Amino acid sequence: MIYIHFIVNPISGKGNNTLCLSRLKKILPEAEFNLEVTYTQYKKHAILLTQNILRYKPDYIIACGGDGTINEIASSLVGTTTILGIIPMGSGNGLAAHLNIPKDIEKAIEIIKRGNQISIDLGKANDRYFFSSMGIGVDSLIIKKYEKSALRMRKAYAIAAFKAILQFKARNYVLFLDKETIQINPYLFFISNTNEMGYKLTLTPKANLEDGWLDLIIVPELSLLQRILLLGYLFAHKIEHYKKAKHLLIQNLVIEMPEVQNIEAQIDGEIYPTKTNTLTVSIVKKGLSVIVNGN
Predict the structure, then answer these.
(1) With helix as H, strand as E and coil as C, how does the chain read?
(2) Report field, pTM of the whole predicted structure over 0.90
(3) Which of 6, 126, 165, 218 could form a disulfide with 62 if both were Cys (CB 3.0 to 4.6 A apart)?
(4) How high is the pLDDT of residue 175?
(5) What does the pLDDT read at residue 199?
(6) 143 CB-contact burial (10 Å; exposed 0-12 / middle 13-18 / buried 19+)
(7) With pLDDT > 70 as the criterion, what percentage of the chain qualifies?
(8) In this predicted model, what pLDDT tens digit does every residue of 5-40 receive, in sequence order?
């Protein structure tokens, strides 16, 4: 008997998400699966729910929501033997897209039933894990503006992106990387673990969850025209042709921002306000087992 606990964020994406036991039992028969469903009630509630559920030693915990909900649940599963499953109900769904998990709920449940799994790498920024991406450049401002939008769709993301490129002001960074100290003033500073960041958009199309590396993209400060051009490359799925982007594979990195007291980053599509001007980024190799769409 496989014990599966589903944690559902009812307001992810467009909201009104439900997942009743009768619907699950049509695909996951009671003779083979012990099923439970719990709903989150507020932001970060999924962390507490996951920690409580782990006391009962479930085989799988299924995150039903967007990248933020997935991050909360997956972070609590690092270092445990419980396997993460995903039913994408959010707007971006970067990790689910990389794992080839469809937004169709019945198809996602079928994938859970098959139970194919891999061990994936994950990133860590100070005390926070990330599974898809993080950034402290213009993408952080985009997410901040997107969070204020009442809409959860590609159009709203595009509007937030356009507002951010008009307002973003680059700051000085000091990077400590591979025994080098590098001073930069970037427009975009983006670290990714997945080949998609949501909405079928990507800055790192060759990123791999199992290769032991994080993909770092640095774009220097740009004129307004160049900022708009970069956005065009992104939405046209031609980012690999943008020559001003520098791509590095990293495992460890320290970032200092001497001009600020607190770095404000985006982690898996949500704003992460720190209480320091230093971020230590590292990779945790094979840190989480996750159900995938595969043979």
Answers:
(1) CEEEEEEECCCCCCCCCCCCHHHHHCCCCCCCEEEEEEECCCCCHHHHHHHHHHHHCCCEEEEEECHHHHHHHHHHHCCCCCEEEEEECCCCCHHHHHCCCCCCHHHHHHHHHHCCEEEEEEEEECCEEECCEEECCHHHHHHHHHHCCCCCCHHHHHHHHHHHHHHCCCCCEEEEECCEEEEECEEEEEEECCCCCECCECCCCCCCCCCCCEEEEEEECCCHHHHHHHHHHHHCCCHHHCCCCEEEEECEEEEECCCCCCCEEEECCEEEECCCCEEEEEEEEEEEEEECCCC
(2) yes
(3) 6
(4) 95
(5) 74
(6) buried
(7) 97
(8) 999 998 876 667 778 888 899 999 999 999 999 999
**Residues ≥6 apart with Cβ < 8 Å to 193:** 120, 121, 122, 123, 130, 131, 132, 133, 207, 209, 214, 215
Decide: 252 and 281 in contact? Cβ < 8 Å. yes
Half-sphere exposure of 50 (CA within 13 A, CB side): 27
Tokens standing for residue 159? 């509007």
Query: Both tokens of residue 252?
Result: 């460890």
Q: Within a 10 A sphere around the Cβ of 241, how many other Cβ atoms?
A: 8
pLDDT at 249: 96
Angstrom distance (rounded) from CA 143 to CA 157: 8
For the beta carbon of residue 294, count every other beta carbon within 10 angstroms.
11
Domains and CATH numbers, the chain: 2-115 (3.40.50.10330), 128-286 (2.60.200.40)
The reported pLDDT for the residue numbered 151 is 65
Q: What confidence tier does 157 reach under pLDDT thresholds 50, 70, 90? A: confident
pLDDT over 80 (residue 149): no
Residue-level pLDDT at 267:
94
The residues that bridge with 192 in the sheet, in sequence order, are 133, 215
